[in-house]
Amino acid sequence: MNFNLLSQSLLLVLCSITSAVAVYLILQLPKDKKLGKGKKAEKEKKLRYLKLIGVLIAGSLVLGFILSLITSGLTDSPLPDSFTVMVLPFASSVVFMAISIWWFKFRLWKIASGYVLISLLFSLLIINGYYRFYPTLGEVFNKNSNVHPVANQSGVFFNFTHTLSNNVVARSIENQITSVSSQSTNGSIYSLDIAGNVSGFKARGGYVYVPAIYNSIPTINLPVIILTAGFPGTPENWIDSGLAATMDKFAVFHHGITPLVFVVDNTGSLTNDTECVNSSRGNVETYLTTDVPNYIKAHFRTINEPSNWAIGGLSMGGTCSVMLALRHPDLFHYFLDYGGEVGPEVGSNQTTIDTLFGGSESQWAAHQPSTLLTTKNFKGLGMGGYFGYGNQ
Q: Strands 282-283 and 278-279, how do they pair?
């Protein structure tokens, strides 16, 4: 399961295989006996090959462009300029399949079909290498190698209960610490299955970063950060981007103290753009604002005031963080928006209204941050947020 899907050697092998199959198919072109022999015949043969290559290149570029247009319509952020090149191996194999059927009359359809499958895998690995969706084969099946499971348990690996009554919980983290040991401040990441008990949303597995101090001081309650991915995306995107290393470094400079960081699913699959609202695509807003907080408070020792809770996300997840914090200030006083949009969208405003809000313009407006900021009173709440935007 730890098979490296980002390996350059793997891409080189697939590139070699697809190239070899393409050359083989070209060389299998049926000979035209009418051409005869001699210089004129050889010239005619060369022209046929050149025409074939020209049709192959032109067809591949056109199909690659069409695939880019189709894919861009399914995502919430612009595709890189190189995306057409990424899908070119697959596009060229499809065009070659059509040419081979025309030239070979299905004689080599099995080899051509295999060429399409290999080229599709090649293109998918190139795209995966760019976006780093799945660094290992295990993560395709939601089994992250960076996670430390607890033996003899399945599903929920952490099951803490509150040991302090509300009247003795200190108002600040610092007041709960009597001493900080000199042991390692490196935390651990554990896998979680947070069920949609109220929402009915079927989420993929999530993760939690637990700082070392959480276990070394059993009376400590910590703040909470909830993180989500973009679309298309997976919870693993946060884990593989160095979340643990970042939090460990934070712990070193803050006496071992960090928030508990939960990475949860907000789409259910790579192809389900929910925009974190309740819709026919899933009751994701209820999941993130009811099921997830309920689970966290029931299984972990946290400071439950909204001033100690933040929600953040990448791209579409960043859009969700702003929208959810403004709609639910009783849960979150802080948001972290990394490359988000101005509000939930799956196309034009009308398309978004029809698709996500059942045609209700009022519901669409009620989920727009710009509207929320002008219609709700946030004075005195001490809310805040972070906006980040960049390339690469």
A: antiparallel
pLDDT for the residue numbered 162: 38
Angstrom distance (rounded) from CA 344 to CA 279: 12
Residue 246 pLDDT exceeds 80:
yes
Share of the chain above pLDDT 90, in %: 39
The distance in angstroms from the start CA to the end CA of the chain is 27
When pLDDT is averaged across residues 19-24 and rounded to a whole number, the result is: 83
Residue 83's Cβ-count burial label (10 Å; 0-12, 13-18, 19+) is: buried
Task: Give the model confidence (pLDDT) of 193-224 as tens digits.
Answer: 999 999 999 999 899 999 999 988 888 899 99
Judge whether 326 and 233 are in contact, CB under 8 Å. Answer: no
Distance CA 238, CA 244 (A): 9
The number of C-alpha atoms within 13 Å of 285 and in the hemisphere containing its C-beta is: 20
* Mean predicted lDDT score pLDDT of the chain: 82
CA atoms within 13 A of residue 53's CA, in its CB half-sphere: 9
Secondary structure of the chain as H, E, C letters: CCCECCCHHHHHHHHHHHHHHHHHHHHCCCCCHHHCCCHHHHHHHHHHHHHHHHHHHHHHHHHHHHHHHHHHCCCCCCCCCCHHHHCHHHHHHHHHHHHHHHHHCCCCHHHHHHHHHHHHHHHHHHHHHHHCCCCEHHHHCCCCCCCCCCCCCCCCCCCCCCCCCHHHCCCCHHHHCCCCCCCCCCCEEEEECCCCCCCCCCCCCEEEEECHHHHHCCCCCECEEEEECCCCCCCHHHHHCCHHHHHHHHHHCCCCCCCEEEECCCCCCCCCCCCCCEECCEEHHHHHHHHHHHHHHHHCCECCCHHHEEEEEECHHHHHHHHHHHHCCCCCCEEEEECCCCCCCCCCHHHHHHHHCCCCHHHHHCCCHHHHHHHCCCCCCCCEEEEECCCC
pLDDT (average), residues 64-71: 84
Contact, 319 vs 337, CB < 8 A?
yes
